[in-house]
Amino acid sequence: MANPSETRKIRAQLDQAVRQREILAYGMSDERAVVIRMRSPLDEATAVLPPESLLEQLRERFGDGFKDQELARPLRFLATPISMGAGIVRNQPTNPGGPEGTLGLPLRNNEGLFFLGAGHVLSNFWKATSKDDPIDWFTAPNQQEQLGKVRDYVPVLPGQPDPLDCGLIAADKDFTSTNTTACGFNVGKNDATVVEDQIVQKCGFRPPGASSAEVIWPSLPAPVIHNGKEYVFANQILVWADPEHPFARPGDSGAVVVTNDSEFVGMLIAGSVADGVFVVTPAKHLKAYWKQFGLTRLP
Fold first, then answer.
1. Are 185 and 203 in contact (CB under 8 A)?
2. With a threshold of 0.85, does the pTM exceed it?
């Protein structure tokens, strides 16, 4: 059984390492621990390493239950400028060159059909965009139809405590595209209980169709870099896949993530494609957001 005083001592050292930017984040339970570290987030050429003595303590304390995950590149939002391929984008006249993402979870209330999406896509990285801006659905390169309008997104600022990267699209009442089934899975009624080493899947467009990853840790702060600014998202799920077989690429922001049993895990928002590490916002955070609008998942 873990020694409580030893655990507190190790946590204090890890907290200090985070403050000193020697590690990005960590997770620790009675039997397992993970440390996420990398070359300095804002200077990718500079190596920043935690004290070897601390890593050795963790190896001795947890044995095979300790995972030391090093990133070569920062975690970044998985949006991309308008390009070939299917996804959700702003209308060109409204927002030329705006970010592209994947159509997310379908929801409904008494007003009609909605889709959950990544907030940084819908708001063009929280710039001064309208919450009524039109959104197009690209069914193929250069083939598009209007999906609907942005109903809401959560503004996010660097340094903001507990930010949430999500938003809502209100689908046009005459939107009847049969291609919406390509944007995600038939998500089951249950939310997943996420644990380490669990296999999860996402359905997006880069690569097309389903791809799988393994849960590194079910709840970690995730520092995401965009234009030299850091956005720290609390209590995120980190997953890993072999970079030779990518779990996701830019343009997959907003993709639905599920278990092999179709239980809802959350929404993909960011990652380091080169390292195969990705950030998933958990279902419970997303549900708390969409319930404010009286929305429920489609059966």
1. yes
2. yes
